[in-house]
Write a structure and sequence with these properties.
Residues 1-117 form the SnoaL-like domain. By secondary structure, this protein is an alpha+beta fold. The chain has 3 helices and 7 strands; from the N terminus they run ααββαβββββ. Strands 1, 2, 3, 4, 5, 6 and 7 form a 7-stranded mixed beta sheet that branches.
Length: 117
């Protein structure tokens, strides 16, 4: 896939809430997750570990109140996507997310994702 095709598919899947499919279709097995602001998930390597991170986060979420995935911006081997979501936690509180995710692509696969918020 070209970087444009990866970006189009990524945005489409994210907007549909198909996060598992994103990892299965678009990520390289050795992908790297970078989120320095996170106490628990700041630096994760490998798709298995990234999926485990998502599963751990899902354990505390009961629903999604709102989600907005912006259009992708592509620059060479990078894709940047604005992403907003408000989730409802098990304790009833709402947790708003407002971030930009930057993906690096090599040979048609995402090799890293970095979250800025």
């Amino acid at each position: 896939m070209t970087n444009q095709e990866v970006a189009n598919r990524l945005v489409s899947l994210l907007r549909d809430g198909k996060f598992e499919t994103v990892y299965d279709e678009l990520f390289h097995q050795d992908a790297h997750h970078i989120e320095p602001q996170s106490e628990y998930f700041s630096d994760i390597k490998g798709i298995v570990a990234i999926k485990a991170k998502d599963a751990a986060m899902q354990e505390n979420i009961t629903g999604v109140e709102a989600m907005e995935v912006g259009d992708a911006i592509i620059a060479k081997n990078y894709i940047a996507i604005p992403y907003k979501m408000t989730v409802i936690l098990k304790d009833g509180n709402k947790w708003p997310l407002d971030e930009i995710i930057v993906y690096k692509i090599e040979n048609g696969k995402i090799i890293s994702e970095q979250f800025f918020y």
